[in-house]
Amino acid sequence: MTAVAATAGDVPAPGAWRGAAWAVARDLRLAWRSKAELGVQLLFYVIVAALIPLGVGPDASLLRALGPGVLWVAALLASLLALPSHQENFGLCVMEALSQAVPVLVSPGVNLAPEIVKANAGWVAAIDKESLTARLAEALSDEAERAKRGAAGQQLSRQYSWESATTNLVQLYQQVLASGGADV
Under 8 Å CB-to-CB from 23, ≥6 apart: which residues? Predict the structure, then answer.
């Protein structure tokens, strides 16, 4: 709201605010499991809420009309990362989301797609309007499934952690040393 006092007619419909509050509360409940996850989702939510006014302009009546919908969409999207791409070699942002138990929606062009399917850590959709719309609707409509796939994604991300990578590298070096370098 602006510094100008709001009148009763300027207040958005209570249902819209309730919907936005419900989405925020739901995501906070999901995120409370991990403080880092909570921080990532809240940061995304705050960034979206702060950037929308910059994109639409300073018209207070327009911002009041758009506000509840923008907040609701931002809250929903904070609980899912979508990365449809024709080619994404590794998808670092995908792995970062998975490490915070945020499930992902990717396309087959994201090289992690087979691992995501195998681990049931998200959804894979072809890059076309119908497929993306269907998978996005499926993902956003089931909170329990998002939480389940988020937990699976967090488990998957551990395979790519520094700890795991260094352990694998040390094992490889030990095998090379044990074989006298014959396998190199």
Answer: 71, 72, 75, 76
pLDDT in tens, 94-130: 888 888 888 999 999 999 999 999 999 999 999 998 9
Strand stretches in 14-163, DSSP E = 81-83, 104-106, 122-124
What is the value of pTM for the model shown?
A: 0.57
CATH classification number, 80-184, choose in 3.40.50.300, 3.40.50.2000, 3.40.50.720, 2.60.200.40: 3.40.50.2000
pLDDT tens-digit map of 5-52: 333 334 444 565 666 666 667 666 665 665 665 666 677 777 777 777
The domain spans of the chain are 10-79, 80-184
